[in-house]
Amino acid sequence: MKIAVCVKVVPDGQLRLDPQSKRLDRSGEGTLNAFDVNAVEEALKLKEAGSDVEEVVIVSLGPERGLEAMRKALAMGADRVVLVSDEAAAGSDLVATSRVLAAALEREGAELVLFGQQAGDSDGAVLWAAVADRLQRPLISQVAELTRQNGNVRGKRQTEYGYDLLEAPLPAVIAVSDAINEPRYPSLKGIMGAKKKPQETLSLGDLGVDADEAGEAGSQTEVYALGDPPARGDTVKIEDDGSAAEKIVQFLREKKAL
Amino acid sequence: MKFLVFLEHHEGALQKDSLGVLSKAASLGGEVEAVLLGAGVEELAADAGRYGAARVHVMDDPLLAAPLPQPRVDALETLLGEQSFDAVLFAASVLSADVAAGLAARLGAGLNWDLTDLAVEDGRLVGKRPELGDSVYADVGWTSEPRLALIRSGTFEPAESGGSAEVETFESRLQDFSLAATMIEQAHSESEGPSIEDAEIVVAGGRGLGSPENFALVEELAKALGGAVAATRAVVDAGWYPYAAQVGQTGKTVSPKLYIACGISGAIQHKVGMQGSSVIVAINKDTNAPIFEYADFGVVGDLHEVVPKLTELVKQRKAA
Amino acid sequence: MKPADYPPPFDPGEFVAAPSDPEGERIEVGVLIVGAGPAGLACAIRLGQLLEGAPELAERLGDVPVAVLEKGKQPGSHLLSGAVVNPRSLRTLFKGRVKTSEMPFYGRVDHEGVYFLTQGRAVRIPTPPTMRNHGNYVASLSRLGRWLGERAEEGGATILPETTAAKLLVTDGRVRGVRTGDRGRGRGGEELANFEPGSDVLARVTVLAEGTQGHLTGVALGRLALEGKSPQVWALGVKEVWRVARPLDRVIHTMGWPLRAGAKYREFGGSFIYPMGPDMVTVGMVVGLDYRDAELSVHDLLQELKTHPLVRKILEGGERIAWGAKTIPEGGFLSLPRRLSAPGLLICGDGAGLVNVPALKGIHYAVESGRLAAEAAFAALQPGETPGRPGALDGYDAALRESFVWTDLRRVRNMRQAFGRGFWLGGALAGAMTATRGAFPPGDARTERDADQEVFTSGRAASYPAADGKLTFDKLSSVFLSGNKTRDDAPNHIRVRTDVPPELAQLWEHMCPAQVYEAVDGGVEVTASNCVQCGAITAKGGRLTPPEGGSGPEYTVT
Does the predicted interface ipTM exceed a cut of 0.85? Predict the structure, then answer.
């Protein structure tokens, strides 16, 4: 069985928006999205537990300098990295990104596709559902515990109401939550060996995706403007003269928070 | 503009957030309809009329009994194939996020998520989206139809505008791969109260509590309000409360409707974990505490006096 | 009471060991460099050049001929300086093949001014000859470090980030390499679920380029009897980077306010304000850690400095975008170790104390020392020689002594020590030294340890401005801006006695720019996760050891 983990390389340090493009400034080095590291860890655990996992491949869409950040996954123990890097794909929204990723995943033919909980930069937490639909595979998301059972996967899914237990046959798409595991630190040997592992860069053409199906051309959403958060309104500050509790209740009623 | 609002239901009632989104759509003018999918849900549909739906499309099918997203994508695709809508609105939940994104891929339609407001400006639908930990807001839009939108949970309150809805049932084929994932065990409502991330109300305690025993004050207030308990890094470091409750840069990020900070100075490491809260109340005896700069309502006082009194008042109101 | 009365629970012996990993698990590299700063990376770059012309040697060195360990998230994460850089060493390093215009500088220094400040006024004074900066370039050391890291990798070096060098591996008086630090321990030192033990990394030559307060450098100097006769002393520098509305057209240094001139205070230092391109400015405060007032806080003195009309005007309409802090070794020539090499070992850069205090320069010495270390290592790796033989690396010390590094440092050797006599007398002595090129006054001044300074309180804290969140800021906001997100349950990496008298607790509380120490009943409380690893505590009675790899600040433009 081959496991593919979809990851995103997100900007390092303080996130900043570029006032021109109104999108995140991605000009810096970039680092592997912390939530995706849980997915990488889960894939590695599955490989270590089952003798039938032949390969853990890391798949991403982004600028070429992201390869550096993706090496962390190789240092942890993943086998190969595939990066789809193409100028025409810059600015892809959910529809365009899922299209490109699905094409890359189909090319890989991995039975199990893993995603992390959300992207640290856009807080987007929906990509896997779009990809699962394109791949026409069952999906289990928000998985806090994953087990394998005779060709099926079982996921303990975290919802607002508690935990569901779901089962899906392979091939499947699973999105893990950050509660699922504590990612390992790469060993020094792992870090040193990472550079030698295969790292493939693909263009849209290699995937058979047209330039106008990706990037801004292939996106169906746009950003009009950036602005400040709505003013919180006047701050009220009082000294407690014994009636503070009543005043709080009154304030909460006015704000319909009570 | 013609809206379709995705309604969720839980344990025999329409879910509050989806009714909130429905009310908002109704307030934008234009035509508003809703869709309800599940098993044995038909009788809930008419209720949506009170919140602004002129018509509710219902697919009532045992195959939709479990709250799983993929069959719902099939159903919505069918419905949207038969009727045209300018926009489909979802109140964000674990279920609806997967439905909305699956639908976006199915239709090649644009999806904007985590919206905290919606407006129609010059015939255009514009969403407001917080970014960078709620410190910057973006105006976002769509370049094609239908426009799919996920609204941040708790954003809109349900508002009854009176009225009744026509209920129209429909059917849809459900794809094999959509039905491949099955529910073995379904969750029940948590008995211990909501998790910090999902809670609408969070009461947090910091060093000002003075001692670990005083966390009881925070817990009592949270219980009275039906909210969750959170803690600052300082008190978790000191061992007064578990790390799972820590809110802040190195803990969880929450954006409840109400955040009550008791004895918390509010340094930026804490602020970035809760600044998205709709209403922030702070109680601290130090008038220079940074939290007073961004709290909506600040009380300079002794929390050991104010908090128990507040708990009492809340209990009284709820009993009444 | 002086801080030295309460020495930290620290025994250098804890950090020296023989290799302990089983043979098959040890990692072997050719040359191991500890620290991806200007010295370490210059060494790596020079080695890459030399090995290119010596393929047989490169092969003998194995899969990883040159490895650089870096405890920060990436090269640059823990680098901080003013800085105005003299490009000569970089030009030499790249053998003219990289133009200055291709180096990541923010512009050449064409104008400069030195000012003496009082509370409300700024008096321009003639630039002391040691501080002339024409022909030099403004740089962000963090950014320069990242760039040098890329050049080093291009030359074949393997950089290993998020990896600390915790112990020095020594057998039979020969340095064998280092043991890297563990990761994934809990607050009490217990192994967590993702515990990853460190590894023995063995090398033919180990180059310590750890920067100020280098952990293994300190250990090595003591254990291998390399220490000089005068102790090292340090200054603490705290700086900010601002996005500004109007470009600044000159490099500015100030002296005087808010530091006090009297000899009893021992407040030596000043501030710098440098333009970084047309839309950024960096402003910093540097104060010697031999100060005596328990309430002196360099962080807050910087905030106070910004309220001065001269500085306020420059920052008006701007926004603070970065903050950081780091110590600078200030002992100069007299505090240099007596040797910087030992069997299998070379020591470079700030860790060795190669800083010209009156000129505020150290980066080009670091680069030059790294380059010379590479050449010495290369020579000792030739057939017929072995770097572990006593004397094999002597060439490094010899080369350093013949270089401009030595001449420069020797010429200004007593200057810093002179300022122990107070600003005015010190200034006069400094002037005399400059005029006579170091011949007068004769002899070598005495250096006193920072921790041996008697502590007193003077109510100084009352003058620090309250944080307004626009021009002035509190320490926690600053720590946040440094990018520090160290996990809260990491073990405490700071060795310090916690049952100390209130005055000492106060000293530490004010001293630390990251609010690590808090005076409490019975002593001091330590919040180690705030630490930005500046090193001030080591100067003033405690001992900083490296925390888990990858933790601490994530500097990018400091």
Answer: yes
